[in-house]
Amino acid sequence: MAKYSHIEWTHHTFNPWWGCAKVSPACLHCYAELWAKRMGQRVWGTEAPRRLFGDEHWREPIVWNEEARSAGRRERVFCASMADVFERRPELDDLRVRLWQVIAETPSLDWLLLTKRPQNIGSMVPWTETWPQNVWLGTTVENQTWAAKRLPLLLQHPAAVRFLSCEPLLGPIDLSTWIGKRGLHSIDWVIAGGESGPKARPMHPDWATGLLRQCQQHSIAFHFKQWGHWVPIEIAGVEETNNVIEFGDEHPVRMTRLPKKDAGRILAGTTWDELPAAAS
C-alpha cells in the first residue's frame, strides 16, 4: 500500500494481499519478490502463503477517494504491485469480492488492474458486458510470444481502458495483429520500460522506439517508464565502454550500466508521459 506512489504512471498503489507465483520470463527477476524477501515475507511460489491485511488497510482507498472527490479530481490506483489480482487460489476469493466492493465505493479513483493471468479475468470479475467506468484493465506482454498469448484474452473485455505493461521489455513487439481487429476492443495505453535490479537484462532501444512509433501511428497513449539499469551510451553521455550488447538477430548496441535514476527515461529525445483519453 502506498499513498502517492513513486511509480510514475499512478498516484497510489493498493495491495489486497502480498505474494504471487512466477508464470513467464518477465517474472524471472521480480522486484516484488525481492522486496517481500527484504521485508521478511516468504510469500512467493505456489506453496507459499499470502500475506493478508486488516480493516485499516482496506479503508485507505476510501480515504483517497474522499480526498480526490473533495479536490474535484480523479486519481489512479495501481492494484496490485505486490501480487496478481487474478491469481487462482480459493483462499483469495473472498478478498477479490471485497476488492470489487471497494472499487464500487470509490468512483473518484481509477483502478488499474494489471495481470499476467488474463485467462482468469472472466471467471473472477462480477462484470460482463457493462464494466465500471473506473476500472482500467491491463496485462503484461514482455515479448511477441506473450503478446500473442495474453492480448486476445485482455481485449475481449469492455473495460473503460485496456492497457499493456511492456516492462521488462524483453523483445520486439508488433501490435498490428490486435490493432483494429474485429471482435476485439482497442488498445488504449502502452507502458514500456527496461528491467532494473542486480541481474537486469538489457533492453534493445529499437524495441522501445518500435512500440512508440506504433502508438503514434494508431493514436495510442504511450508512457516510457525507464531504461532500467542498461542505457545506450549516447543517452548516458558516456564516450567509451566495452559493453557491446548482442541481441540475437538485432544489431548490437553499445550500452552502459547505471543506477536506474541515472539511466533515466529519455526515449527519442524526450520523455513520454501520455495517458489514455479516459484520464482527461
How would you describe this structure to a colleague?
The protein is an alpha/beta fold and 280 residues long. The protein has one domain.
Q: Which sheet architecture does the biggest sheet show?
A: 7 strands, parallel
- Low-pLDDT runs of 5+ residues are none
Spell the H/E element sequence.
EHHEHEHEHEEHEEHEEH
Helix content: 25-40%
Instruction: Compute the number of structural domains.
Output: 1
Summarize the structure.
With 280 residues, the protein is an alpha/beta fold. Helix content is 26%, strand content 19%.
Outline the fold blueprint.
Blueprint: E1 12-13, H1 31-38, H2 55-71, E2 75-79, H3 93-104, E3 109-115, H4 121-124, E4 135-140, H5 144-155, E5 161-166, E6 189-193, H6 205-217, E7 221-226, E8 230-232, H7 233-236, E9 244-247, E10 250-257, H8 260-263
Parallel strand pairs: 1-2, 2-3, 3-4, 4-5, 5-6, 6-7
Antiparallel strand pairs: 8-10, 9-10
Core attributes:
three-stranded antiparallel β-sheet; seven-stranded parallel β-sheet
